[in-house]
Amino acid sequence: MAGEVSDEVADKRFLVTGAAGFIGNHLVRALAARGAREVRALDREPLAANPFFVRTPGVTEVRLALGDASTDALVDALDGVDAVFHLAAVKYRPRGEPLVDIVRTNALGTAALLEAATRAGVAKLVFTSSLYAYGRMRGGPLDEAETPAPCTAYGCSKRFGEELVALTGVRFTTLRYLFVYGPGQAAKHGYPSVIVKSFVRMLAGRPPVIYGDGAQVLDYVFVDDVVDATIRALAPVADGRVYNVGSGNGTPIRDLIGTMRDLAGFAGEPEFQPPDGTAGTSRVARIDRIRSDLGWSPGTPLRDGLAATLTSIRLHPGWYGREK
């Protein structure tokens, strides 16, 4: 979809929060490529710190930390903006969640942004939530019609954001992302990806790690497909709706690692560790609603997306870090 001009994007002004992050960086570039008049890229970090960011006409940098920015400063940043993509968040980390940071950014920062968007007369807001808003880790496909029951601070903060968005007078759409992967993902911008960690280990000659029997099932969706879904959410038909953004297919970790070993040319066997908290889990999205409403379907086969990710890691090893 790169370079495609969309009626929902062409000649309009947008603000993207979390623009220096993994998905935000891809979204900023896609909006510019699709004909946006201006994209305001808001983040506490400089865009140039991300080696995947390319200076693009029409992209302006707004250096604000969402959790610390005043409503007045956000109103100024939103002046003349047609729509907001709200991606900025302190992400889930399995080794401990920084509660104060999560509340400050994900809850209070979202509240300040929504108040500012209302005052600035923004027409539409796309809020990016997460599978962690559901809470459950077992059972059948995650369905937008079920009642969320988040069980982590991150999941609670995302669910709270969903409820706040629905209380404003701004048109909105909520997207619950599944396990997004692709070029540019790094642990400091989200949960430590099994894909990145395993590729980094194999490129260093070390075996990938599998916890338990590797039967854990996850729904991996490529970042370019996620960006396409996120932009489609601008459409009026999506107003007030909640959509899962995933592949709709579950992949056991052992199968994922098998494909990755093949792509990386790694002949060794995986290293099996005792089961962790993901043992016996299955987290897969039902995506019928977004297919029906927005005509969106993920277009990148898992093997192709993994190959693109591996190429990126080989080209930018410093960005992805070193597996200890």
Number of helices: 10
CATH architecture of the largest domain: 3-Layer(aba) Sandwich
User: What proportion strand?
Assistant: 15-25%
**Residue share in helix:** 25-40%
Would you mind describing this structure in some detail?
- The model has no long low-confidence stretch (mean pLDDT 93).
- This protein has ten helices and 14 strands.
- The protein has 324 residues and is of the alpha/beta class.
- The protein has helices at residues 22-33, 71-77, 99-120, 153-167, 194-203, 223-232, 253-264, 288-294, 302-315, 317-320; strands at residues 13-17, 38-43, 59-63, 83-86, 124-130, 171-177, 179-181, 209-211, 217-218, 220-222, 242-245, 251-252, 271-273, 282-283.
- The protein has two domains: 13-178 and 223-245, NAD(P)-binding Rossmann-like Domain (Rossmann fold); 181-219 and 249-285 and 300-320, UDP-galactose 4-epimerase, domain 1, CATH 3.90.25.10.
- The strands form four sheets. It has a seven-stranded parallel beta sheet, with helices on both faces. A three-stranded mixed beta sheet has the order 12-9-14.
